[in-house]
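Thread amino acids onto this structure.
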């Protein structure tokens, strides 16, 4: 029987356009992303380098971009956070008594953008619904590292076989399975988090 749920954020709650950043960069004259930038991104999402250092590096490796335009392109991936999903989460917590956790690979720029564009009130309301929020850049770890799941399990005394992990990325799902978590690989576009009860 499931008593705890660990949720991903992107494309589980907040809608994403995963090609938007590259489309916006193309408009700014960038035709290819150098592999070195992806390595720097990995470190940025683990909070191992500061936002200012990441932006400076990106501007150096993608010459000709102004900082504001680069950041706008970077945040173009972020779309809306449907109220129906927040309401569903609240009802799940209040009526079903599940322990709920958010576990997201993200970064400071994206979270700042969520608060600015979606509104601080909405984001604070969303975050406080969870028992605890784990953001990769704050805990210096990211999925699919199995240790990130072990951290959530240990810090909250979760029982893996009674804990469901929901994510839209197959690699993350496989890693979660490796530490004993139950999983739901949510198929974006055909499934929605509001259908969760059919997976419990």
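Threaded sequence (200 positions):
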């Amino acid at each position: 029987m499931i008593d705890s749920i660990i949720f991903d954020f992107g494309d589980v709650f907040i809608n994403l356009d995963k090609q938007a950043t590259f489309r916006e960069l193309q408009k700014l004259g960038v035709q290819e992303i150098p592999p070195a930038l992806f390595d720097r991104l990995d470190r940025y999402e683990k909070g191992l380098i500061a936002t200012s250092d990441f932006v400076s590096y990106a501007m150096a490796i993608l010459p000709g971009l102004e900082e504001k335009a680069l950041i706008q392109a970077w945040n173009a991936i972020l779309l809306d956070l449907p109220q129906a999903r927040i309401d569903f989460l609240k009802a799940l917590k209040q009526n079903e008594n599940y322990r709920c956790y958010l576990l997201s690979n993200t970064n400071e720029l994206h979270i700042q953008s969520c608060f600015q564009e979606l509104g601080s009130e909405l984001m604070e309301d969303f975050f406080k619904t969870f028992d605890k929020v784990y953001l990769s850049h704050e805990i210096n770890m990211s999925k699919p590292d199995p240790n990130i799941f072990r951290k959530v399990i240990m810090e909250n005394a979760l029982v893996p076989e009674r804990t469901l992990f929901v994510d839209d990325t197959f690699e993350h799902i496989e890693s979660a399975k490796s530490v004993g978590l139950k999983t739901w690989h949510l198929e974006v576009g055909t499934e929605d988090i509001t259908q969760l009860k059919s997976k419990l």
